[in-house]
Amino acid sequence: MSEKSSAATSTSNQDESLLLYLNEAIATTRDKESLFKIVTEKLRLIFPFDTIVIVTLDPEGRYRRLFFRDYLTVSGLTPKHSSNKPTLVAGTATEYFLRNPEVHTIAIQDVLNRYPDSPFSLMVDQGIHYITIAPMRTGGTQVGLLCLASRKHPHFGEADVTLLEKISSLVAVAVSNTIAFEEIARREREKTIQLAVNNALLTIKEREQLFQRVASEINRVVPYDYFGVRIQRRGGTREAFVELRKQPGSTTFEPLDPNRWNDVPDYHQMEAEAFELFLKPALYAGEQFADLAQHYRLFDQIRRNYGTYSILTAPLWVRDDQAAVLILSSQQDSNFTEEDLELIMGLVPQITLALKNLFAFEQIESLRAQLERERTYLIDEINTTANFGEFVGNSPALQPALTRLTQVAPTDTTVLITGETGTGKELAARALHNLSPRKERALIKLNCAALPAQLIESELFGHEKGAFTGAVDRRIGKFELADGGTIFLDEVGELPLDLQAKLLRVLQEKEFERIGGRRVIKTDARVIAATNRVLEDEVAAGRFRADLYYRLNVFPIRLPALRERPEDIEPLIRFFLERLTKKLAKPVRGLRERDLRAMQQYSWPGNIRELEHVLEQAVIVSTGPFLEFAGFSAAAAQASPPVPLPDNTPIKTLRDQERDHILAALKRTGGRVSGPNGAAVLLDINAKTLEARMKKLGIRRTVGVE
């Protein structure tokens, strides 16, 4: 073998050994820095270069990313020039390099002539004038460029070019593998944080505790000092939803004082000026943050007060009526990267969900608190008004009923309240419940006359799902709901006979079954029944069971009709007028003596309920200083008992008396109806009401009468 052949063989063996070594390094090394330290050291043994740069391309070849750079020589490159952020290939030196698909060497000055703003001028300042470009391909696709820069022009032979092509192919595989492993690691990191944030969402409902956990979890992979969520509402008002800062030397985040900016003049104006910067995903660090601090007073303030030098912003939502943004800040000027921003944006949906859930939980809590306040108010209202205090009056006819209510209220005795409609039977039932030991439990009411007969049984005892057509769900009956409390059966005389038997069983055995059910349900409910019928007559007519009547009529209480207690009408009027004027937001008006007398003489077939309705109508329609009871006086007079007259005295009808009275008033006023000197003033009645009465009574207006 010749000496030349032996040297070639030795060189070939060295090349094969290098390729094998690089292949093993690529297969076993996952760390980018370690891998390319090995690649750089081995390449320097064969090829003359001073620095190495590796650029990767996206699958479409539109964007490039600086994947690796050897800083041992080119120390003048700043972080701004070595950013790992993807940039467009079009219009850059990378586009120029890609035009030649082979290994080739270019003078850097030629690059600068075409692209004067490129960072290659820094290489020239370092004395580096040439760059060798080796395309990196894997699977037939170009994935990047391997660039070897040197001070002197390299002289590569054909074997060197072939070796460099093989090495660039191995490096291409290394780059692809490393990118894949980095992507896997990034996704694992994302999933870890997402899982931690999701666990926080599921377990914590309190605002500060939730975001303290979220801030701590994110801080494990993205170091920062401040975590804040700010909201801008319609009209430009802004507020801090949550603000946390990491304590020095600690990993825990604590709430910030919301009033810390109160002493800073124009703080809200400063925030308004800068808030637009927070409405888009961005990071501001280093020179960019310093530049913002010169143009925005808010950035200058946070730099001065907290030593902040970098900010990351991620909008959670931006709508016409509201915007919410997440803001992270750090005291390091290069603490955030594009990968950090991408990671945070990946968490935005979860943080948004957390924020909306908190809004919902806090609204529910607010409504719950409001409901609790209203419930407390209603209980107090019932306790103070729904007792004997609403039994207005002190007439001899009412006193026996009040005495019996007082006697039976503390017991569990069944009570039967009788009386005409509108006498206050439900009021008496509520008073009995509120004065009993069962007042802490519910008073369950059922109007037996308000439901069809086929539905009353279901209301009383409940039913199982599928018990009858339309029974799509189980229903709890009134007796079951009233367990431990009181059940009030209003208009019990309206119950059908078949249900009377079932009600009798409940009263006797204290048990019942749901419709369609087989389980016997025990109940401990006190029964209060009410009726406006005379049950003795109903029993005699066969419409009401005698045994049920005697079970209900354990302790009867009769409420007197209003006509039996005329002396209570005036205090009742005062009571209702006070309540109605407040309820209807109407001014307080006077009550004429004649109207009061008419009401006291009226028979009130509808009792207290009718009185309340008459007063409510008067409060609504009245416009003058006194209450107007349009048409009531005549109706009351017609319905009232006649005034005794001497024997053999002719009696006029009420219509004739009213007609004569109006004619006398018109005669005295010269036929004038309205105005200060009209008959309406004389009769103390509204002019339009008087005209209506005249028309009804057939009194015609003569010429000159207004």
Can you characterise this structure?
The N and C termini lie far apart (147 Å). This protein has 706 residues and is of the alpha+beta class. The radius of gyration is 48 Å and the shape is elongated. The chain folds into five domains: 11-184, GAF domain (Beta-Lactamase, 2-Layer Sandwich), CATH 3.30.450.40; 204-362, Transcription factor LuxR-like, autoinducer-binding domain (Beta-Lactamase), CATH 3.30.450.80; 388-555, Rossmann fold (3-Layer(aba) Sandwich); 561-641, Helicase, Ruva Protein, domain 3 (Orthogonal Bundle), CATH 1.10.8; 645-706, Arc Repressor Mutant, subunit A, CATH 1.10.10. β7 (226-233) and β8 form a beta hairpin. The relative contact order is 0.05. The protein has a six-stranded antiparallel β-sheet with strand order 3-2-1-6-5-4. Pfam families: AAA_lid_14, GAF, HTH_8, Sigma54_activat. This is Fis family transcriptional regulator. Residues 391-620 form the Sigma-54 factor interaction domain. Keywords: ATP-binding, DNA-binding, Nucleotide-binding, Transcription, Transcription regulation.
